[in-house]
Amino acid sequence: MTATDLSPTRFQLPDITPTVGIDWTAIPSPAFVLDESRLRRNLALISQVQRASGARIIVAFKGFSMWSAFPLLREYGIGGATASSLNEARLAREEMQGEVHVYAPAYSDEEMPQILELADHLVFNSFSQWERFKPQVEAARAKGQDIHVGIRINPEYAEVETDLYNPAGPFSRLGVTRREFREDLLDGVDGLHFHTLCEKDSDTLERTLEVVERNFGEFLPRMKWVNFGGGHLMTREGYDLQRLIRVVRAFREKWAVDVILEPGSAFGWQTGWLVSRVLDVVHNVKDAALLDVSVSAHMPDVLEMPYRPRILGAGDPPEHEHREASDYGGGHPYLIGGTTCLAGDVVGEYIFEQPLKIGDRVIFDDMIHYTMVKTTFFNGVKHPDIGILHLDGSYERVKAFGYEEFKAKLS
């Protein structure tokens, strides 16, 4: 790889015409809609980063597991996935058809035999788990399975603002700290794994690696690979790709190891929407629009993180609390809520240019990564379809959910 490989021109995205002029009323509501053109743009960039850095980039199912789109990922050289459970490992083997990397905070005796049949890389959260399952791993290796084993480490350093998503916070159950690290149990282990990023830029990764090297550098010469986990939001506008490539290449060369990145959000970032429609408008001091989607069931991160999603064609209200009609500049404010009986099933207040009426579409932006994988059937409300808006503008409904899916989740 020459120095020119790192020039910004290496990262010019291909001329893929984004879908325009979408007829939202032609898409049955509610529905998660993936825009193929936007996904291809992300995949093209991720593929270029993979080639330039020499890292292996795999998709984290916990952030993006829309398996109807996996053929596109393979088309751009994404050769594997990371799973956090037996079910995700099965999905990786059956649908992704590449390397299967598995990490979970703890494995059960009942599931380990099946996981061993599926996993190419198996990461343990603790040395006690490694000791417990090492005989089974060795037996599988003796039968000819090439299973790479890693230990998740906790560098006790993270720049994550929300405690819910901070794996290196105080008393974290995730990963082995330097104090608890067992060099005497490294026989059979050929990799280390850390995951402390959450939608961060590459400068955070660089600072994290300094801590990893300081705390665990003495063990790196014994390793064949290091997994940098996820949270590398390389498809976000303004992300420093050159730094990411430089940092990854320097680490690979310094320690003579393979580097693995497993982003989830970067694949689905800004690739689609959640389409909803207005079912009713009620008034109790303020106007409230009730949609055919649920915040708690279909957009749980809005309440958990919390964050405020963008609605196409809608604006934010004035910041001060005591607002008058004149504060809205002629716009029409509405509290946007869902259809479950949860009192807090509300996104927040938005300003629309025109009054909302029953049947109007309300389109939530950037709803493909994480949001789709965390939905529930709470209250039995209708679950959104899953669809793809193709390059030619045609819409394909790839999944519709009905009563049977709701019933199958219960007993």
Automatic annotation (TrEMBL):
<keyword id="KW-0663">Pyridoxal phosphate</keyword>
<feature type="domain" description="Orn/DAP/Arg decarboxylase 2 C-terminal">
    <location>
        <begin position="187"/>
        <end position="367"/>
    </location>
</feature>
<dbReference type="GO" id="GO:0016829">
    <property type="term" value="F:lyase activity"/>
</dbReference>
<keyword id="KW-0456">Lyase</keyword>
<dbReference type="Pfam" id="PF00278">
    <property type="entry name" value="Orn_DAP_Arg_deC"/>
</dbReference>
<dbReference type="InterPro" id="IPR022643">
    <property type="entry name" value="De-COase2_C"/>
</dbReference>
<keyword id="KW-0210">Decarboxylase</keyword>
<dbReference type="InterPro" id="IPR009006">
    <property type="entry name" value="Ala_racemase/Decarboxylase_C"/>
</dbReference>
<keyword id="KW-0745">Spermidine biosynthesis</keyword>
<dbReference type="InterPro" id="IPR005730">
    <property type="entry name" value="Nsp_de-COase"/>
</dbReference>
<protein>
    <submittedName>
        <fullName>Carboxynorspermidine decarboxylase</fullName>
        <ecNumber>4.1.1.96</ecNumber>
    </submittedName>
</protein>
<dbReference type="InterPro" id="IPR029066">
    <property type="entry name" value="PLP-binding_barrel"/>
</dbReference>
